[in-house]
Amino acid sequence: MRSPSACIAVGSRRAVRPKRNTEAMCGIVGYIGNREALPILLGGLETLEYRGYDSSGIAVCVKGGIEITRATGKLIELKKALAGRKVMSESRIGIGHTRWATHGRPTETNAHPHSAGRVSLIHNGIIENYLELRAELEREGCVFKSETDTEVAAHLLNRFLEQGFKPLEAMRLMCGEVRGSYAFLAIDAENPDRILVAKNSTPIILGRGEGENFIASDIPAILPHTRRIVILEDGDLAEVTADSLYIENRGSIVKRQEQTVSWDPITAQKGGFKHFMLKEIYDQARVLSDTLRSRFNEQEGSVQLPELEKLGAKAKEIKRVVLVACGTAWHACLEGKFFIESFARIPCEVDYASEFRYRTSLIDSDTLVIAVSQSGETLDTLGALECASGKGLTLAVCNVVGASICRKADMVLYTHAGPEISVASTKAFTTQLVALELLALYLAERRGTMSTDERRKVLQSLVHLPSAVAQTLRVDAAVAAAAKQLASVRDFLFLGRGTCYPIALEGALKLKEISYIHAEGYPAGEMKHGPIALIDERMPVVMILQREKQLFEKSLSNLKEVEARGARVVVVTDASPEQALGVTPEATIHVPFVSSELSPLLLNIPLQLLAYHVAVMNGTDVDLPRNLAKSVTVE
Ligand code: M6R
User: Fold this and answer.
1) Angle between the 452-472 and 599-617 helix axes, to the nearest 10 degrees?
2) Which residues contact residue 138 at a Cβ distance below 8 angstroms, ignoring those fewer than 6 apart?
3) Is there a catalytic annotation at residue 630?
4) Residue 434 CB coordination number (10 Å)
5) What angle do CA 497, 385, 431 make, to 5 degrees?
6) Where are the alpha helices (DSSP H) in 523-598?
7) Of the listed 26, 61, 142, 326, which one is catalytic?
8) Taking residues 459-470, what's their average pLDDT?
9) Which ligand 1 atom is the nearest neighbour of the CA of 632?
10) Domain 278-469: which CATH number of 3.40.50.720, 2.60.40.10, 1.10.1060.10, 3.40.50.10490
11) Of 181, 279, 474, 617, which residue is the least packed, with the fewest Cβ within 10 Å?
12) Closest residue by Cα to residue 414 from 440, 461, 376
């Protein structure tokens, strides 16, 4: 075994701009050195507050053990809990965490750090096999205190340390047992001179100081102390002491280049992007993997949503589905209707929550009412859910664990988009689409409306989604160029057919929200029943054109009608670049084709980018557009 205290050079210092890094949900900070750890940990966690969290906690090594303090709510609560804990304030080594709940409610017991025996550990990510591990550990006599997936990691690490393995070796063995995504930081009461780190699919960085070192989920947390950072890669294990960084990967020592960060603190919070909205658009490839993770078995063509057990048992009795939401979430519901009707063969209605709650809603015990909301706090959506509660079965599709809507509904399906900070919803929308698609497949399986092969085919396409999203994001420069040509226009029309009609609505909403340009979404086939009168060279048309045969040809005819009236046209399509369109648009943006079910999601991404670039060119406040709030808690 390698000597853990060996000091490993992590490459020469060079001033570079670190690769833009998307972030995971929770915030992590670690410190070891000659200063008091507590203010550094709290300061780091404060810097990460912008990302959203529901609880927090800190563990530090003290003489004879580890001391932990945790609290729900804002960091001020943690500070209050820490006040007077002098024993903690003297420590020079510690780990801190802000939790954005994924497994288990946002309570103090579920807050990190989690402890087991001599170990205290924090985690960012999801342990997929935690249920089996927990059962195994319980059989061995471990007592669990929380509902989290993370606690299994603390018990496993403690077990290996108690078996006599050296700290990093114990960490390696623990990581060998867990499946999923993680950034772990752990301290061991019997080795209080080091912090153990492990990374897989979740970002974590080390920061180098003089006689002190730092660890964080994101650069901003340590920027006040050092600009010298080392970005860990998947499979890396690190042992950080006050004077050394030891890194290994699959048993071999590795060198990771040290970089000097040139970002100012605000740019750093945005992961190097100019705005949160752009960062969140780019987050989509990763967060969509989080939405999908552990939720299906591709071979068996089966969707596993244990949280919907109640619905599974009743799936065959459901006669009608009513989807309620506001804004962008309402557009997701329109797509959800397509999924549920075509996969599960249940008639669906979609209603604005603000309308539904003041109508005579005919909900009975065979009706499933689905409330879709990013924040889970939108007052109208909550009101609509309240109207349905007690009459039909209710389900919340939500991003924020423990939000009001989740507490009100009979069941919850979380979207796992991570905190969305920009007022304009982007990644929340695409994760809602995928959650609704999984839900429709889940119902289809239980109602016998799709064969195993048919379900398998849909799941196979979902597997390719994250990489298709990453590929789609390459259109950014082309969209920016189109935006430049169109930024001074005052009105826009977005057209789409079938599943691309809700995308036209969403594209128009995004543009008006952040650029203050009037935009309308319309079903392409309806255009000649009125809006065609508006069309001239001052009214650009964005046509969302999916390759699906019948609709493709019909949409092309609409496009010709538009072109004949002198409109400037932008086509966003998943048709192959070789396919003749018979028109000459001002710009054609191509996205990859994965499957007809996923086309709307991919075709939406260039529209998010279009709205973003037009807004930037017009100098608006992209992340905080005028008159809008992130969650609308008034009627
Ligand atoms: O948090 P919710 O999903 O319930 O919010 C609903 C709408 O307020 C929201 O989608 C709004 O339309 C966004 N600003 C759209 O970008």
Assistant:
1) 20
2) 144
3) yes
4) 25
5) 45
6) 549-564
7) 26
8) 94
9) 8
10) 3.40.50.10490
11) 474
12) 376
Two tokens at 133?
């591990």
Residue in 283, 303, 301 with CA at minimum distance from that of residue 293: 303
- What is the model's pLDDT at position 25? 61
Is 26 a residue of the active site?
yes
Residue of 352, 399, 631, 634 best suited for mutating to test ligand 1, as the one with most atoms within 8 Å of CB: 631
Q: CA 134 to CA 146: how far, in whole Å?
A: 11
Distance CA(456)–CA(623), nearest Å, equals 39
* CB contact at 8 A, 28 and 183: yes
Q: What is the DSSP letter of 20?
A: P
Is the CB of residue 326 below 6 angstroms from any atom belonging to ligand 1?
Answer: yes
Please give the biggest Cα pair distance in the chain: 81
* Ligand 1 atom at minimal distance to the Cα of residue 631: 1
How far is the C-alpha of 450 from the C-alpha of 496, rounded, in Å? 27
**363 Cβ contact list (under 8 Å, min separation 6):** 322, 369, 387, 388, 391, 392
Query: Which candidate, 23, 104, 95, places its Cα nearest to that of 56?
Result: 95
Phi then psi for 363, rounded to 5 degrees?
-105, 130
What would the two tokens of residue 321 be?
């589905």
Please list, residue by residue across 353-384, b when 16 or more beta carbons sit within 10 angstroms of its beta carbon and e when fewer do.
bbebbeeebebeeebbbbbbbbbbbbbbbbbb
pLDDT tens column, 314-360: 999 999 999 999 999 999 999 999 999 999 999 999 999 999 999 88
SS3 557: helix
Fold entry, domain 472-617: Rossmann fold (3.40.50)
Mutation probe of ligand 1 site: the residue of 323, 333, 375 with most atoms within 8 A of C-beta? 375
What's the Cα-to-Cα distance from 107 to each of 115, 564, 586, rounded to whole Å? 16, 61, 54
Q: In whole angstroms, what separates CA 280 from the centre of its chain?
A: 8
**Which residues belong to CATH 3.60.20.10 in the chain?**
27-268
Could you tell me how far CA 358 lies from the centroid of its own chain? 33
Helices (H) and strands (E) in the chain, counts: 19, 28
CB-ligand 1 contact for 513 (6 Å cutoff) = yes
| Element containing residue 62 per DSSP (H, E) | strand 55-62
CATH 3.40.50.10490-classified regions of the chain:
278-469, 472-617
Lowest mean pLDDT among 23-37, 466-480, 576-590: 23-37
pLDDT at 21 over 90: no
User: Which fold, 27-268?
Assistant: Glutamine Phosphoribosylpyrophosphate, subunit 1, domain 1 (3.60.20)
pLDDT, tens digit (0-9, with 9 covering 90-100), for 167-181? 999 999 999 999 988
Ligand 1 close to Cβ of residue 375 (< 6 A):
yes
Phi/psi-derived region of residue 7, left when phi > 0, alpha when psi is between -120 and 50, beta in every other case: beta
pTM of the model: 0.75
**Average pLDDT over every residue of 427-437:** 98
HEC profile of 514-531 = HHCCEEEEEEHHHHHHCH
